[in-house]
Amino acid sequence: MKKNFAFLLFSLALLLTACSTDSTSTEETGNSEKSSGDSSYNIGVVLMSVSSEYWKMTMAGAKDAAEELGVNVEVLGPTEETKFEEQVKIVEDQISKGVDALVIAASLPEAMQPALSKAKEAEIPVVLIDANVESFEDKVTFIGTENYDAGKLAGEYAKEQFNLQDGDKVAIIRGQLGAKVHDERAGGFQDALKDLDIEFNIQDAQSDRVKAVNLMENILTSTPEIKLVFATSDDMALGAYKGLENSEKTDLPLIGFDGTPDGLNAVQDGFMQANIAQDPYNMGNTGVESAVSALKGEEVEERIDSGAKVITSENVEERIEKVNGYLNK
Amino acid sequence: MEERAINLEPQVEGPKKKKEWDTKKLLNKFGALLGLLILSTILTVLTPSFLTVDNLMNILRQVSINSLLAMGMLLTIITAGIDLSVGSILAFAIVTGGIVTVTLGLSPILGIATILLVGALAGMINGLLLTKLRLPHPFISTLGTMNVFRGLALIVTAASPIFGFPLMINYIGQESVVGIPISFMLVIVVAIMMHIFLNRTSTGRYIYAIGGNKEAARLSGIPVDRVLVIVYTISGFMAALGGLVLIGRTNSASPIAGLTYELDAIAAVIIGGASFMGGVGTVAGTIIGAMIIAVLRNGLNLIGVSSDLQTVVIGLVIILAVYVDVLRRREKKN
Q1: Domains of chain B by range and CATH?
Q2: Burial bucket for residue A93 (CB in 10 Å: 0-12, 13-18, 19+)
């Protein structure tokens, strides 16, 4: 009995040590690879999750910046974006570990506020990426897509390419009414078309793919004469495509938003005419850069637009190649 | 089956041979604690930031919510039951509290009362489903209510989180007194009360008896149904209490708060030496179980191990803990 028990404790210990030495050793090789520069700042990058393609691109951006600048980064995040309290814990742990700076993409921005205050107390500069925490005024900067401008890009593209006329009807499938991100995307889109007398049919699919399918079908029933569909996220755009397919209306132009691998494939396959791609790689990259600038006492702009790009059949191949490059890092 | 004869003696794990009593009792009592100490020692060696006052307070803060939920879960597991709905009850309770205090702007005291009451009522519904509708196992009834309460939380908030709680509510989860998080002081107070409840009251002893052998308990005149309703009500209440801490920690009440918290709570209880067969388990063990999970996560975060790998390690620790329990039992039989 005692032997068994001792054995178990021993194996537990072994397991832990193995697991931790494993990671420290990879970390060390990582360091030696990166610490070409003199300064060896330690920067904690905490993402909403580490398991989606979007965040892997962000991670690639952060790691490339670290390599270039000769600093150490550690990219962490919960297994799923819904685990926002887990993310708070990770940030707290980074603070007690004493990192020099933090780059954070908060999954529930307001929930991160107490942890950010702790970072401030510990005098750790914080760069926010992707999602802003409006109430946290002491951030170095916020780096993310300027959603209004990106929405405008979509509107301008629609105007140029699809010959919209006064009185035409356009459907917008958007996320949660009242959610700022979607307000801005839809608003920018509408403003780009405001000199035309367009009738907008705006529906809330709550960022859900299945809801978007149903909504698309309903829209086509109620207003069959619509000329174009804009969805404020790729998930909804892909749902909308399914709705178009079910109603045999796939000839209607569809514009998506995000530039996820699925969304890009849809452009490549001709299901989507355009996709407004965000740049998560740039968020991670500029995020680490800005953190280092802050540590060196350099001036950093308060708000940095990570940029958005219209992806069409012309440039989609190139984009997919680039994204795959990031993902295979 | 005769092995699990009714036994009103608390803390005792079914009949055992007197002569081996000492080693076993020691291992039972201190096995998990020993594990925690070994774990902490390893982490101290591996990373210098582990054994610092700051980080230890961090861990106490981080362990609070799971400890509270796990103590409620402990009661259900001692009765050979389970409560899968605690995460959803937590979310439903805090968003109703959010509606009362933030949306309607009513007093924070009323808000706290609402949160705790909603939690207790939700738990009571679990108990009634189990005893009145005679659903076959709490796994099923609480699986159902897990979905019901999560759905309700999403409906009443239209799926968006509530922010801007009054300071009084945030206080518990947010502040520290003389450096020690208030949330952990709450855990200690509740743990002491729970320990007394389980060991010094008749209801507490009935809970062990029901887990030991439900039929025998019934035959010996224990009001099994009433005790079960109490157990699930307490579990719901503890989930709400955990929710109260969560509000302060995150300054918000989200309808998706507490997703998969039931699993962490179950893990804490099991690592802490309780058995799914019922009749066994202590409050101290459960707190240590919760500590092991929290220390493990914290330590692995400090070392920089990714959350995917952390999940694997925690899974292995659960299996290890249960295996220790199995060995213990096998030994006892021989």
Answers
A1: 52-333 (1.10.3470)
A2: buried
Whether the CB-CB separation of A149 and A204 falls below 8 Å is answered with no
Full-model pTM: 0.81
Using pLDDT thresholds of 50, 70 and 90, give the confidence band for residue B30: confident
Q: What are the tokens at A166?
A: 């006064």
Q: β-pairing, A308-311 with A274-278?
A: antiparallel
CATH class entry, domain A38-144+280-306: alpha beta
Q: Annotate chain A with three-state secondary structure.
A: CHHHHHHHHHHHHHHHHHHHHHHHHHHHHHHHHHCCCCCCCEEEEECCCCCCHHHHHHHHHHHHHHHHHCCEEEEECCCCCCCHHHHHHHHHHHHHHCCCEEEECCCCHHHHHHHHHHHHHCCCCEEEECCCCCCCCCCCEEEECCHHHHHHHHHHHHHHHHCCCCCCEEEEEECCCCCHHHHHHHHHHHHHCCCCCCEEEEEECCCCHHHHHHHHHHHHHHCCCCCEEEECCHHHHHHHHHHHHHCCCCCCCEEEEECCHHHHHHHHCCCCCEEEEECHHHHHHHHHHHHHHHHCCCCCCCEEECCEEEECCCCHHHHHHHHHHHHCC
Nearest CA in chain B to A111: B250
Helix pair angle (B167-174, B182-200), 10° resolution:
80
> A-chain residues within 8 Å CB-CB of B161?
108, 110-111
- ipTM tops 0.95: no
- Whether residues B309 and A19 touch (CB distance < 8 A) is answered with yes
Cα–Cα–Cα angle for A3, A5, A10, rounded to 5 degrees: 95
Provide the 3-class DSSP secondary structure of residue B181: strand
SS3 B275: coil
Polymer length of chain B = 334
CB proximity list for B42: less than 8 A, separation 6 or greater: A13, A16, A17, A20
Biggest CA–CA distance in chain A, Å, is 85
B251, B298, B331: residue with CB nearest A1 = B331
| Closest partner CB to A114 (pick from B47, B251, B298) | B251
Backbone angles phi, psi at B162, to 5 degrees: -105, 130
Q: For chain A, what are the domain ranges?
A: 38-144+280-306, 147-278
Q: CATH homologous superfamily of domain A147-278?
A: Response regulator (3.40.50.2300)
Tell me the C-alpha to C-alpha distance, in Å, between residue A213 and each of A172, A236, A242, A244, B234.
13, 8, 6, 8, 43
- The 10s digit of each residue's pLDDT in A288-328 is 999 999 999 999 999 999 999 999 999 999 999 998 988 88
pLDDT tens-digit readout, A204-256: 888 888 999 999 999 999 999 999 999 999 999 999 999 999 999 999 999 99
pLDDT value, residue B27? 64
* Contacting residues for A118 by C-beta, under 8 A, at least 6 apart: A92, A95
Nearest to B320 among A12, A113, A206 (CB): A12
3-class SS of residue B304: coil
| Cβ contact A261:A323 at 8 Å | yes
Strand pairing partners for A43? A73, A101
Domains A38-144+280-306 and A147-278 share a fold: yes
CA distance B249 to chain A (A): 7
